[in-house]
Design brief:
Largest sheet: 2 strands, parallel
Helix content: 40-55%
Number of helices: 7
Radius of gyration: 17 Å
Structural class: mainly alpha
Distance between the termini: 50 Å
Strand order of the largest sheet: 1-2
């Protein structure tokens, strides 16, 4: 049964994952001025960033495809001279793992270190909400 499910998932991914279907609103547009004003926040504070953690090597995404995605949608944390991963930007934070050694199926062998990395992302979002 697991093999059949895997084949159906692979088929669905091949049919659905073709071109970028997300618009700017998903990729990182800040909340609208009316939303920010109603919450008493600035656009930058209202912005909720997307975070991506890629495996160094992943058989489900070609390196050149991942590089294109990062080049077109990722924030460069060094562009503003600040190492902060979320403030003052409208792009996703994308990172390629070079410490954990995880693969595509990270949950099988690397769930704890990946969870610790995701906790960093969550703490970043929480700190934004508190400032």
């Amino acid at each position: 049964m697991g093999v059949t499910q895997s084949l159906h998932l692979a088929r669905d991914e091949l049919l659905e994952i073709t071109v970028d279907k997300w618009d700017h609103e998903v990729w990182g547009a800040p909340a609208s001025n009316s939303t920010a004003s109603a919450q008493g926040t600035t656009d930058d504070q209202a912005y909720v960033p997307l975070y991506f953690l890629f495996a160094q090597s992943d058989h489900w995404i070609a390196d050149h495809t991942r590089a294109t995605l990062i080049a077109s949608h990722a924030h460069d944390p060094n562009a503003d001279g600040i190492g902060d991963i979320s403030r003052g930007r409208e792009k996703a934070y994308m990172e390629i793992d070079n410490q954990i050694g995880m693969g595509h199926a990270f949950c099988l062998n690397h769930s704890i270190p990946v969870a610790e990395k995701i906790a960093e992302y969550v703490l970043d979002v929480v700190s934004r909400c508190q400032s």
